[in-house]
Amino acid sequence: MTHYYAFNGDADGLCALQQLWRSGAPGGVLVTGVKRDIALLERVDAVAGDQCTVLDVSLDVNRAGLLSLLAAGVLVRYFDHHFAGEVPAHPGLEAHLDPSAEVCTSILVDRWLGGSFRRWAVVGAFGDGLTSEGHALARAAALPPSSVERLRELGVAINYNAYGETIADLHVAPAVLAEEMAGYADPLDFAEQSMTYRLLAQGYASDMERARALAPERAESGSVLFVLPDAPWARRASGTLANDLAKTFADRAVAIVSPKSDGGYLVSLRVPKGAAVGADEFCRRFPSGGGRKAAAGINHLPAAELGPFADAFAEQFARGA
């Protein structure tokens, strides 16, 4: 029997995986990629009797792959907080799904494990931009302020590393990062001792210094849109920049548009809590769009659609709309 782990390469997916590994044994076949590489289950080469744990990728996007695995006799355990659509009723599927805005996959795993490895859940929540939830988990774990800040920095750096068009854009491939993280029972030790973490932290500081100097392409009453340059540092910084700008422009929707090497754009979207339309709902209007209520994206926006997208974005999130 082979155990496959299909997981998002961002902080939430990685920290959910670490919790599960600490509750059992690290190992198995890892299927992952950059943050936007989410159609993972079609790459799981499992057979009857195998197991597959899925973390932090939309069931709706992976529906065909999931149904194929279930039909083949693979047992699937699924943790996710993105839009799922209709969940298949199948005895081989154990689904832990919650699309609530205040939930991430690391929190779902933390709940399932009864908080046994909560420090990793704290890292995942902070990395996924759930600041209030990260602090709440940290209080439940009775962590001192200095440790909380260290875990917040770690989550942000791990999450930043996942953004890129290809693995070549990243400082560390997510599968390699997962294996190194597995050597540390406590994420505070990983933050203190790992040379890989130092690489991520230094890269993050350098990239974000450039990113924060960018001016918006369009600024409207209820929205702001940034177009990034075509460079690896900009692609790596895009997700963290979107989270930072969501705090800076807390009352406005934020869109970050990044050029792709083969043409067109990647889009990261953040909307304020309580917005009439969720980020996922808006992004699903476009092919390859999806995500969750507060944060979503479009994996490929054709170049010719940038203007119409910008207009639709401004119109949808105009104050009073």
Descriptive overview:
Helices cover 41% and strands 17% of the residues. By secondary structure, the protein is of the alpha/beta class. A hairpin with a 5-residue loop joins strand 8 and strand 9 (265-270). Helix 4 runs antiparallel to helix 5 (131-140) and helix 4 (118-127) packs across helix 6. The protein is globular.
The CATH architecture of the largest domain would be Alpha-Beta Complex
Number of helices, where a helix is a run of at least 4 consecutive DSSP H or I residues: 12
Low-confidence parts: none
Estimate the strand proportion. 15-25%
- According to CATH, the fold-level topology of the largest domain is inorganic pyrophosphatase (n-terminal core)
The level of helicity is 40-55%
Overall structural class, as computed from helix and strand content, comes to alpha/beta
The CATH class of the largest domain is identified as: Alpha Beta
Number of domains: 2
Indicate the mean pLDDT.
94
Condensed summary:
With 321 residues, this protein is an alpha/beta fold. It has helices spanning 11-23, 63-71, 105-112, 118-127, 131-140, 145-161, 174-181, 187-193, 195-211, 232-248, 279-283, 306-316; strands at 3-7, 29-31, 51-55, 75-80, 93-97, 218-219, 223-227, 253-259, 265-270, 289-291, 295-301.
Task: Chart the SSEs and their pairings.
Elements: E1 3-7, H1 11-23, E2 29-31, E3 51-55, H2 63-71, E4 75-80, E5 93-97, H3 105-112, H4 118-127, H5 131-140, H6 145-161, H7 174-181, H8 187-193, H9 195-211, E6 218-219, E7 223-227, H10 232-248, E8 253-259, E9 265-270, H11 279-283, E10 289-291, E11 295-301, H12 306-316
Parallel strand pairs: 1-2, 1-3, 3-4, 4-5, 7-8
Antiparallel strand pairs: 6-7, 8-9, 9-11, 10-11
Helix pairs in contact: 1-3, 1-4, 3-4, 4-5, 4-6, 6-9, 6-10, 9-10
